[in-house]
Amino acid sequence: MTTLPTRKIGPFTVSAIGLGCMNLSHAYLPRPDAADAERLLLHALDAGVTFLDTAALYGFGANEELLGRTVMHRRGDFTLASKCVLGGSDGKRGIDGSPEAITRTLEDSLHRLNTEHIDLYYMHRLDPKVPVEESVGALARAVEAGKIGAIGLSEMSAATLRRAHAVHPIAAMQTEYSPWTRNPEIAVLDACAELGTGFVAFSPVARGLLAGGISAEGVPEGDLRRGMPRFQGENLARNLDMAARFRAIAEAAGCSMAQLCMAWLLSRREFIVPIPGTTRIDHLDDLLGTFAHPVAPELLAQVDALFPPDAAAGPRYAREAQAQVDTEVWPDEQLA
């Protein structure tokens, strides 16, 4: 049980704000030490978060191991999500959506997570070399075997969602979504509504930009965001200008920037669950404080006006990473 508001994602009832665990082990800098990461996870459960999201990719297994040693004694307190297909070795990413790879990755994840069952298991990316029907077929067999409870997709299009759903019901689509990144509004949110698929919003505070976490200096060397066009040069300057105007709306609403992001997302559709990531307990508590700070509809409308769909300066990803996603893009959206 949780004291937080709840929403439905497929067959699961989860806290209306979950926790993305990636940056406890992967991608963003600075990273917490093991003890701090463990404290944050346990604090999240104590605070009522009942939806934890990890992946085989994160820390190349280290993030799953972190959850496996930290929270599995409280397995009944949360819905566990992880992902396959996008993985890697020697610090390099790779995609393999073959049934054999999915089966192997699942077994490895179960071992690292110290569990016999993952509630929600996503295809992290679409493998263009493998029909999605074959990949989903492997996941359907894992459902039948009791190793996973439901199937999800990540960073995929409405057309791919429909193809996958024809093989087995898809419980959730996970894609980047924030006031700054509105690609799911092109087609995916409507497809989710049509099919009864939940939507899980990752990077809901715009990778820190709309939480006040990015300065004109950008991000440290070695941080994943450093290679993203939106965090470089003139693009960053333009995006920081929009963030400053967003801060003014949050101040008018009497809430933090992060809380305004959460309120905006939760207002979009009743089946959306944001999964912000953080390494700090005070930031997590601020995010969960969203429910104590309702935002007036006219201020949410100001957010819409500030961020039309193609407002962000620069593409989401550099060319190589963009080639690994199947999501729709806006007609005028830049591609690196």
UniProtKB/TrEMBL annotation:
One of its GO terms (molecular function) is oxidoreductase activity. Residues 16-306 form the NADP-dependent oxidoreductase domain. InterPro entries: Aldo-Keto_reductase (IPR050791), NAD(P)_OxRdtase_dom_sf (IPR036812), NADP_OxRdtase_dom (IPR023210). Keywords: Oxidoreductase. PROSITE patterns: PROKAR_LIPOPROTEIN. GO terms for cellular component: cytoplasm. PANTHER family: AFLATOXIN B1 ALDEHYDE REDUCTASE, ALDO-KETO REDUCTASE YAKC [NADP(+)]. This is NADP-dependent oxidoreductase domain-containing protein.
